[in-house]
Amino acid sequence: MSELSGLKILNDLATTSLRFRPKTDEPVQMLRSLTMCVQEMTREELLLLRQKIDTKLGFKLMYLSVLAAEKSINTGQADWLKSAVCAHVVEGMKGDYRENTLRLGAVEYSAWKLGIPVSTLLEPFKVILSDSELEQLQQALGSGRGENSLWAVGMKEEIIDGLSVFVSENPTP
After folding, report:
1. Tens digits of residue pLDDT in 57-94
2. 106 near 153, Cβ under 8 Å?
3. For residue 150, what are the contacts with CB-CB under 8 A and spacing of at least 6?
4. Can you tell me the distance from the alpha carbon of 137 to that of 89, in angstroms, rounded to the nearest whole number?
């Protein structure tokens, strides 16, 4: 059942435009729903789910992880960080690992800001990750940069309309 629900959410995300910052929380709420499904999956179900992810959807998942990291700061709720990590678990770190590492810098920063040990964010997913996947995520999240996590990946935090938002340190013209 979790796999079928996860597939439906992935299909919905695939048809959701994220070219511009969403005006509503709907996409990040969909990621939270996906997280609940993934936490109930077996490794085999996760692997089947990953087969449905193309490059475009993979990038959407990574972007949603940044939005979930922002949401964690804005709400003070650590569960959003688990959803941020889940996006990378589902994506499987298949694409260029540097793309994942960039987005995970926002997750690491948010965890630091909330006082959450990053190791706890991986706990719900350890049973469905391979050793190498777990190691990749631990390395990307466990840099120990804390406050400098955003700077290290070329991002910064800005307050816009009273909310924390991560933006590129050097936006392209």
Report:
1. 999 999 999 999 999 999 999 999 999 999 999 999 88
2. yes
3. 105, 106, 109, 156, 157, 166, 169
4. 8
Cα separations in angstroms, 111 against 94, 128, 132, 144, 158: 24, 22, 23, 11, 17
Q: Mutual orientation of helices 131-141 and 97-114 as an angle, nearest 10°?
A: 60
For tokens 């350890």, name the residue: 126
For residues 114-120, average pLDDT: 92
**Residue 119: exposed, middle, or buried by beta-carbon count in 10 A (0-12, 13-18, 19+)?**
exposed
